[in-house]
Amino acid sequence: MYHLLIVDDEASVVESLALTIPWEEHGIEEVHLAYSAEEALQIAEKVPIDIMITDIRMPEMDGLELIGHMRSLSSKFRSIILSGHDEFEYAQKAIRHQTLGYLLKPVDIGELIDAVRKAIVDIEEEWAEISSYQRIKHTLHANMPLLRNQLLSDLLQNKPIEPKWLEERLDMIDVSFRLGDPYLMMVVRLEEDFSGYDLHSLSLLEYAVSNIAEEVFEELFELWHCVTEQGYLVFLIKSRAADGLVRADSYAIKLQNHVHKYLKGSLSVCLSKIGTFPSEVADSYQASVAAINRNVGKNKSYFITVEDNPVQPEDSNVIQLYEPPLLPVLLQSGSWDEAAVKISKMLVLDDPSTEPSRDHLLAVFLYLSSSFTTIMASEGLPIEETLGEEFDLLLRKKSQLSRQRIFEWADKIIVSLKAIASKQLEDSHQQIASKVRTYIQGHLAEGISLQTVADHVGLHPVYLSKVYKSATGETIGDLLYRIRMERAAYLLQNTEMKIAEISSELGFLAAPHFIKIFKRHYGSTPQEYRNKS
């Protein structure tokens, strides 16, 4: 069903067209009325308009200009023009604005209905084309680099992917790697020669380096590459020859030379050990990045292999980001102290002699920001306000990043989140306590137990007991006892019910037991209490 907008500065025309035609019989769900172009645009900003019938001559803004503005809101809407002028110039302009009808006033209702039907058919045909196989195939081809980049990025992050689904995705994006294939990983870092480029230029530069790599390795190898969040270019290398991978190092050096010659910049390159696809991809990436980080500052441009740089646990700073338990999990579970320890390990605060690279600090900073904003969004917190002004400062002045600054900022965020979570927990505990009280007050006669209350609230009995005690300072048993005694006193004072009836009303199995409990609490039997009252 579609939305129709009728626009004319003559109110009688608008209301006549809206009310005299049974639009719902012609596929129109709702008809919107506007008496000026400005009012029409206000409606279109709030409601998705599919078809517009508009007068061509209106004060302030004519129908053709209105159509232009409407197209900026939705390129898929259809327009039909009404005109009191059978002029060639207007008709020409209407054609240029891709209108589906140019009808002369007074409007022939049959022609107008036919034009609206034609508009509906036109819309449906366009959407059919959009969803057609050819369009999907074209879209897939256009987005192929992005899809390839995303899948390899997922593998580098060790995201779980079912083998069958992975094979289907590899086929879909036309990547020749298959499960069990041997590979080498080449991790490339753009060095200081390129530091003067802005972000847009760096993206073009990464594209240029990737193209050079394809040309250099094309003779003997197939490449699959992506750009990681840390800014590394990562290439998976598959050999067309049985022993080709052992010769990949000479091609990697050739890549360095070509980039230096043609792009006037330096690359640092790390080549992994031969691994098995896809099970070892994440480990290869972590080991390669760790090897690169250990060489930061030693050379302007270097070529290393993971064999030459065995990964030592104390140097694997990047690995700390993705080692379990993951920071978002700790934050979501409210493990605040463990989260602070995790951040401390990421920043290597326990080893003052080791200074993490700026890339590593930036990676940690962005990872922390992402983790914090995830939990803020899930809790409905204002992200910009909760991150604080210091976040903007650190983000703008990346040269000012240090592990101590990052840790102090992160610690403030954790303290803030902890306080918010504590308040929310307190509120939720009070809500649970209120549910418990309401249930007990309404079901005294049913023989209440901790299990029946827990079943009603939807919590484990042991956990419910702890929550209620922390929220009120008394146990559920104390609450049940107190409510029974207060209710008993009220019934004895204000009703003529028999002692046995009151006992049953309060959920006691036998009146003598009720009398015993009542006397222990008030110092007299129920009858004596009633007589005194």
From TrEMBL:
Outline the extent of the Response regulatory domain: 3-120
Give start and end of each HTH araC/xylS-type domain: 434-532
Q: Which SUPFAM superfamilies match?
A: CheY-like, Homeodomain-like
Transmembrane domains' residue ranges: none
| 4-aspartylphosphate modification, residue list | 55
Pfam families cross-referenced by the UniProt entry:
GGDEF_2 (PF17853), HTH_18 (PF12833), Response_reg (PF00072)
Q: Which UniProt keywords apply?
A: DNA-binding, Phosphoprotein, Transcription, Transcription regulation
Q: Which Gene3D superfamilies match?
A: 3.40.50.2300, Homeodomain-like
| GO BP terms | phosphorelay signal transduction system
The UniProt GO MF terms for this protein read: DNA-binding transcription factor activity; sequence-specific DNA binding
Q: Sorted alphabetically, which PROSITE patterns does this protein's record hold? A: HTH_ARAC_FAMILY_1, HTH_ARAC_FAMILY_2, RESPONSE_REGULATORY
Q: Does the keyword Cytoplasm apply?
A: no
Q: Which CDD domains match?
A: REC_YesN-like (cd17536)
Q: Which InterPro entries match?
A: CdaR_GGDEF, CheY-like_superfamily, Homeodomain-like_sf, HTH_AraC, HTH_AraC-typ_CS, Sig_transdc_resp-reg_receiver, Tscrpt_reg_AraC-type_HTH
Under what name is this protein listed? Response regulator
Q: What is the lineage of its organism?
A: Bacteria, Bacillati, Bacillota, Bacilli, Bacillales
